[in-house]
Write a structure and sequence with these properties.
It is a single chain. This protein starts with a helix and ends with a helix. The longest helix has 31 residues. Helix 2 packs antiparallel against helix 3, helix 2 packs parallel to helix 4 and helix 3 packs antiparallel against helix 4. It is mainly α and 136 residues long. It has five helices and no strands.
Amino acid sequence: MMSRFLKRFFEKALGDDIEIFRMLSRHVSISLESCDIVYKMFSEKLSNDEIARLANEVVILEKNADGIAEEALKRLAKGSLTITLVPDLHYIINKTDDVEDHLYFIAMELLRGSRSGIRENPYITDVYKDLGRTLM
């Protein structure tokens, strides 16, 4: 935890620019929530309806995250942060948004797969198990 002194110091030093960091923090929280949902989609035996519901949650979270990233980038362009920080923060915001975008694509692919009966195909199940072992 950040001490109250440091928190007050950064709030005064950064002024309105501190909101960029708050937005980045909210964006990361959304990505973590999406990651939990995608993990549940992978790890539990769910019905197609449940997978569709969870995928829809990820869609909503991704739209919210896009809005936060867009607003953070606007504030960054208008803010008073030093020119040496702006490219790094721009990069971090974009990469954070890329994580959420990829979670969205994974959720959509899982939904597509569930609708096409991918779980009933033992060959596909084995391929995903092998892929999971390879990635670990």
